[in-house]
Design goal:
The protein is 36% helix and 32% strand. By secondary structure, it is an alpha/beta fold. It has one domain (22-143). Strands 2-1-3-4-5-6 form a six-stranded mixed β-sheet.
């Protein structure tokens, strides 16, 4: 039975030795391009759920400072380019859909969690063999209690 705790310690140790941890940003010259591509992929996914030209989104800042620092500007720009109107104050746009986000770096990509009104959506994005960031796996959707 000691093999399982030992294996878990090995995996955790390997992750920390590689400098990968929850909420920790990756460094590198391709990082900005990754964030721009990731933001565009997420915005395109939202178009499948909402008509961009007729939708106002109230962007709630991520509670994670790394998500805000790395993803806020590219995501805001991608949403505007996709045709969404953005609001920052619920009083000004009471009919706006609330949109919160969190981006967690992985060793070869990111996990993105969006909360749109009462629905949370999570998806992993990883680099393919050519180094292009792509959706990796299905979109997980969870309805939250009102």
């Amino acid at each position: 039975m000691r093999a399982v705790p030992g294996m878990a310690a090995l995996v955790v140790g390997l992750c920390f030795s590689l400098g990968v941890g929850p909420g920790q940003a990756q460094a590198g010259p391709a990082e900005d391009a990754d964030h721009t591509r990731l933001a565009a992929l997420v915005a395109q996914g939202l178009i499948a759920c909402l008509p961009a030209a007729a939708t106002v989104l109230r962007l709630d800042p991520s509670p994670d400072p790394e998500s805000r620092k790395l993803f806020a500007d590219p995501f805001t720009l991608a949403l505007r380019r996709a045709g969404f109107a953005l609001a920052w104050d619920a009083k000004v746009s009471p009919d706006a859909h609330g949109l919160a986000y969190a981006v967690t770096p992985l060793w070869d990509g990111y996990v993105v969690r969006l909360t749109l009104d009462q629905t949370t959506m999570t998806r992993a994005y990883l680099h393919d063999r050519d180094g292009v960031l792509r959706a990796a796996g299905p979109l997980t959707v969870k309805e939250l209690a009102p």
